[in-house]
Amino acid sequence: MSSDYSRAHVDHVSRVIRNAGNPLTLPVPGVILDSWRRSMEHYHLDPGSLQGPRILEAHLLKERRERVEDFLRIAAEEVSCLHKRVRDADYCVMLADTQGCTIGYQVESSIRREYRRAGMDLGTCWSESEEGTSAVSTVLVNRAPVTVHKRDHFRAAFIDLTCSAAPVFAPDGELLAVLDVSAIKSPDDRRSQHLIRQMVIQSATDIENAFFMFSTQDHWVLRAHTVPGYVDSQPEYLFAWDNDGQLKALNPAARCYLHQRYGRVPENISEVFGPDQLPAAYDDGLRYLSDKGLHIRLKAPRRPVSITVSAVAACDPRIEQALRMAVRVKDRHLPVLIHGETGAGKEYFARQLHEASQRRDKPFVAVNCAAIPESLIESELFGYAAGAFTGASNKGMRGLLQQADGGTLFLDEIGDMPLPLQTRLLRALSEGEVAPLGAARRQSINIQVICATHRDLAILVANGTFREDLYFRLSGARFDLPPLRERNDKLAIINHLLDEEARRSGVRLGLSETALELILNYAWPGNMRQLHHVLRYACAVCTGDIIRLEDLPAILSSGVPVKSVEMPSGSLERQALIDVLVRHRWKPVLAAKELGISRATLYRRVKQYGIKMPGKGSYT
To answer: CB neighbours of 365 closer than 8 A, spacing ≥ 6?
Structure first.
């Protein structure tokens, strides 16, 4: 852009401000004029400047994005949808935070460089104090949608741009972000941007509503619209309240509705809707309120997630507590790193974590980084386009990262991932985009990552075989699984695995006292994986309904010695008691139920006959 062009813009801005006394002859809207005045008189900016916007340093941009990570994840889908509607006309879509920094950005890869030269990229700063009048800065000041078209921009560097932006409000009414659609080429008539502006306003509202529903999952939520077909897809009004009826959140339309109707925001939902107007807790059907002209639907609070008992968290309180903490961490969208010996149940833990998280209805994709050949792992993870390489499928292939979109990606043995691939993975996780091999266009992904390893990643970082930035990206929270030999719930794990085998084979087997004692006292260097294989072997070779010592692999007898089991010579009643315990896999409640006695009576008889309860010692 020439200096003559710059001087012409300076003359234009100065002339408009001088002649601002007659609003009917103004060539710019009033909000633009007000911003020009602030830019010149308050911020002392130069309208002739041809310098591009300030770009935030990478680590500062990362911090800003991480502070609103939940919001960015929720907004990503709508940003992508909006970009798909405008990309053919060469528009880009930006999402700016409340300081005017671009924290979300989508543009076609073929024009990305051209837009970057024009000042539009991740990390660019559009505050009025720095850049003067722009769409983002004007929305930040006025909290209302705006189009800043070409010469409406205060600085000469941006007068080729056309930008339409709208505010995105948080459930508490505070400004959360600014959604912007911009182009570097457009007709001179500002009216050419009318449709784009309406699209931005609608997309901003959709983002607001999506984030509202995410943020109020633990509250009662009422969706309302004057047209019944829009109640679910595009509700006009959103109200959220707690179990005491206290209003906790409103979308902008609902806030405006209450101010118009009551002159204020009532504290309790009962002041807005009578008890006979709200549906019952179990009734989520559509209801029409004739006095308000609204169709409404009630959504009950999300029930607390109950963590089911399985092989990985049977009874050991350390595992159960770790799982509960991991669910909280994961639902705050922090990456989780699981550390434990090989076979300790890291994938079991990861699957339970996924099932107990907010993404439980989405895919869980597990990848063993050590099991895939290095030559194939890149295409497996990222996929490839049709004809990307010799032997590639003519239809291409969706990578595992794309298959996990919306859900959880479990990267087992992450420490074995090749160093070059670590760089691609880091970029994909940071940008939320994946580039399949041979593809011209990057594709958005929304995944939650759980990683597992038996290796010490900090040592790998020190040795230079694992990227430090990826290490910190993946280790938002670390959970250590104890080895099987240190767990106090081995009996519950054994019974769980035997139940699995019974469902698979249709044959239910018990364990003799000596066989169970041997299993409980073995060191299990292969952890749960080894235990599972041993029990499957024993179930396969057992010819009766009780697994005995001779049915177990010989390696168990050569392992850690078992304490001698000295049983006093017993009566028929003692043997019958042992038989019942074995049949019910030493579960006192079930054994007592079959015998028709209380559990306390069962324990007294166990002690009376000197029977050793596996894992609990002898009652003598």
So the answer is: 400, 403, 404, 407, 408, 409, 410
